[in-house]
Amino acid sequence: EAGVAQSPRYKIIEKRQSVAFWCNPISGHATLYWYQQILGQGPKLLIQFQNNGVVDDSQLPKDRFSAERLKGVDSTLKIQPAKLEDSAVYLCASSLATWRGQETQYFGPGTRLLVL
Amino acid sequence: GENVEQHPSTLSVQEGDSAVIKCTYSDSASNYFPWYKQELGKRPQLIIDIRSNVGEKKDQRIAVTLNKTAKHFSLHITETQPEDSAVYFCAASRRAGNMLTFGGGTRLMVKP
Q: What is the pLDDT confidence band of residue A70, given thresholds at 50, 70 and 90?
């Protein structure tokens, strides 16, 4: 099956600029996750969607980060304005569902963001 | 919230030896514990997971053990091979599909 797709793969911007990332989950996967992975650290969940509804966004810095999944399929994550500390890899993941046996999260290749 | 500690941060073994990576978690309500392998510049990939109603799970050369009382779980890799070299992450969540909290990662190097 096709995996999780993300674009762009790399992005370099200056601080205070805006940037957007796109994710296309595995077909049929209801749950979609956005993670931030800072170099040398484990991924940190930013937001979780179930279809087009937000399940958890407690760790999303809402003053500058926003995300949407309007039709319950593709998702976009936006940073506006970007700060130096936002430099990281942004990983999108999806799972078939959230209940037992269907919860495996499959990750996309990530978008590597560098803020100068 | 949940906090997951992972040790060691780096581990170097000779090919054929065993490798053990340990994680502790803080939330006693956590009941789902996956392990991911991430090669340099690649995406994390699930290698094995365990639920709190099971004490041990094996898949060929990989095994995971869970001690709910002590709130720790471990990854065991036997007969290591150079292609096992990667960063390994443990994670925990309160229920399957709920938000995963990841450990800091262990860089495993298998020397031929």
A: confident
